Amino acid sequence: MRVVIIGGSGHTGTYLVPRLVEAGYEVINVTRGKGKPYLSHAAWRSVQQVTMDREIEDAAGHFGKQIRDLKPDIVIDMFCFTLDSAKQIVEALQGQIHHFLHCGSMWVHGFNTTVPVTEDQPRRPFGRYAIENSEGIDPYLLTDYGAKKATIEAYLLDEARRNGFPATCLHPGHIVGPGHYPVTPQGNFNNQVFEKLARGETLTLPNLGLETVHHVHGDDVAQAFMKAIAHRSVSLGESFHVVSPAALTLRGYAESVAAWFGKPVNLEFLGWEDWRKTVSEPEAWATWDHIAHSPNGSIAKGQRLLDYQPRYTSLQAIFESLDWMITHQVIRV
After folding, report:
1. Contact residues for 172 (Cβ-Cβ < 8 A; gap 6+)
2. CATH number at residue 165
């Protein structure tokens, strides 16, 4: 069978593409040609690379047709961010493919009522933040990313249930592994947080440090996609969380990282408004995005229906990332 993966050169694709090749699939990777896999693997030599800029081709109304012309049996869409883009590819592929797998996000959930949140809980994604100064801000924070992902999910599942389009949605958490920087115990991407913990220095956390983050190793995300393909009959028309077995509190995360470095942890706490003044504006917004969501996802559905069994706990995945960051001198300890 032929698999077309859209955006297969990223962190998940680094693990997913070799898994597909080793399982006997013919693989075509549709890419803008700007990225390379995080890790080398001999399987990439048998992968056909097709260079295509989705944004440009979507605007011209060609992208869905171009994917169809590759004659796939299975399409894995790692990079779909708008409803119009999803509609274009669904309309082009309707009745033409065996399975369509969409990479969503845990950000389809906003504020959770109960945790761990399950896939059947109502979606309450956040809208766009009122960010006045966008300099240095991660571009996704300037959009209603979670709301768009939730809209795409709703559309795909409706198409599956009403019109038989063979769609499955998978929602990863914070993807980590070699080459990919983890969300830190402050809920942002300031790698100096890890250096402070490695030196036993004082680290200040927002509030009481009890908000959560939920990581997942890139290879476990790849595993989930493979399991969804293997269990197609029960994955069609369904969504699945793809995270580690348990989320981490910021405080517990900081304590565990310090212990991994062989240092005592020295934590201080400030209420949000005071804490945000201690970091840059981009760091504050990144932290707010993570602690406001406080992702904590259940994987019981994936375990039951797909036999999804993540190999890594959150901390095991993070420590593998930290090993890589130390080796490549991203952080100095």
Report:
1. 12, 103, 104, 105, 106, 216, 221, 224, 242, 243
2. 3.40.50.720
